[in-house]
């Protein structure tokens, strides 16, 4: 062999190795490094189909709910609090005894899109099968291939639900599904829809199941709308989840994303932080486990779709900044203004006297939709318990806010929360009490649920005249969040 031939063959070997490395990197990006550490594919498995399924699992955020805190990936066991009791996510690894290893494609499809287990029993709608019902056949096949051939089996038994009889009976769930869950049908965009908007709609309303948290729920825990055809309720904001608010994703300029651009939404979903907002609570899990791995095209499609939704009535008008509080804090003359002195001493160093925060680090409290929400649970919870801004591939730094429940008493926390909610042009009620904080801190009771019977209105109680909903305005599910507790993502 000549020197030239040796060099040529060496170059070909290098190119083949480079192609293999690039291919592995692509699969790693789609599946995520921790999830890509699966056993080798079966001989008859289509590697491209498995890789596609891994990406669809990211779109569906399957790992966040089906992985317990400090648990094994997809082995289940995460506690999900519901208004009727505790549910624990199930093992969805291909283990044949405790997982889904014995499921056929048809049985897998029935579980994902119809909410029916292999044994024929209905699933609780903590499993968002009403949204998954619009997933396409091709995506279901790819997802099945991934879970059968790309996920490591885990021998871990499922935990029984902690729901009292008679609500523990599953058979009524079949009637619930017939009444409220859409029939499985692959998503088809309306004629003439922009293909980018259509892709965004599919992700948001289908595998992404954004409405499961961001749409209010009705009397029987059904989402009040599954897409824009449902009117202003769709993505109008949910109730507290683990004492974090899932805010409106509609174009309300005060309570929603009316002042956000498509680029803002793209960057927020990709990195978890933008100049005027930062991810926290349950959404931190979504970004850390899932959306940071989405393709740029899919993220932009989601952003374009959300911004294309029909306008909704601006519940609180528009936001106008007011510098009265800024001038008071600058002067140091906070006497007579409850909470102002505490803000100056404890909060201003990060969120600044003008309430503007620090871009991509400490979110502003001035004009923040979470701050001005009718429900103060979220802002009160983050002051009391603190929060974590997770690292992502695109913003590799973790920022934490300390929990002030170890520094301030309940009355002081209530005072500073009320000050924040009524300053810099924020026009939210300032009636959080020390009792509210004490219940939130010790028993995890959302502030809106701390109402006497017969005091609810049509927006704070089940029937408009009777028992206040235990999870605020609209029933919702509350899975434990991993961020700040579990570094597995």
UniProtKB/TrEMBL annotation:
A family per Pfam: Cytochrom_C
PROSITE patterns in alphabetical order: CYTC
Keyword Lipoprotein among record annotations: no
Domain Cytochrome c: 48-151, 195-310, 334-424
Repeat is among the record's keywords: yes
UniProt keyword list: Cell membrane, Heme, Iron, Membrane, Metal-binding, Repeat, Signal
Protein name in the entry: C-type cytochrome
Species whose genome carries this gene: Acetobacter musti
